[in-house]
Task: structure prediction
Amino acid sequence: MLIAIGIVYNTFNNMIEVLLFALAGFTIGTLGTLIGAGGGFIIVPLLLLTHKELAPVTVTAISMAVVAFNAMSGSVAYARARRIDYKAGFTFAVFTVPGSILGVLAVRHLPLDAFQSIFGALLILIGIYLFVKNTRKKHVEHTTPDPSPRAKQYTLTDARGNSYTYSYDRIKGIIISVIVGFLSPVLGIGGGIIHVPAMVNMLRFPMHVATATSHFILAIMATVTVITHIFSGSYNDHAVQIMVLGLSLGVIPGAQLGAYLSHRMHSKLIIQLLAVSLALVGLRMLML
Result:
């Protein structure tokens, strides 16, 4: 009888925990998709501040699992919109794989204090970037050709009939992908916040194509990172499994809401407030 009561009690507690993490995941998915940067940069500081007993490798493992679900869900939507450059996406994704595996191994040797300091500084930089980006005039969907002799021209037409013509240096893109592949699992942020600006400003991709293609790359890279974490035992703990399950269940519908709101509301003020909040959280983490 007591064993049965204990099982029921534990099951009820697990359900409550999953529900609470799902609510957090829903908020993270909505905000992350609304600003086009995923939710890893929100999940990591949230876990660092609320679950101080977790090691950096566990925090990043949880974050990357949620990022993988979010990226796969978003990639389906972008595939329907036909804005993914699959040739560039597959090429760059392949070269993120070695870096992502090395990143998982490297974060295991990163002390918590060093991890918090690095991530705190990164949050401040992300906050400044988002604030400055959203005080400028709206990005115009035109790109100038890449002058590099290695650059080749491509044309992509989306589901609405919009045509994008652009050129990029494949070698430069591969180098960027290797770097992003390493940094993403080390910091647990996915990589969209780094990859999209790099694809737009350094590779001359149109913004809409860069966002969709980066999401597709992230889906592959994050999945490889999660598989690496599975084999290294990062998800063996029951509490970690509860966090991953709850956050993932919430982030998928949250991402859909974020995508819906991004086309139907003026998000400039929201993004600027979020940018200030991120910078303040970054300062808080530097003071830990």
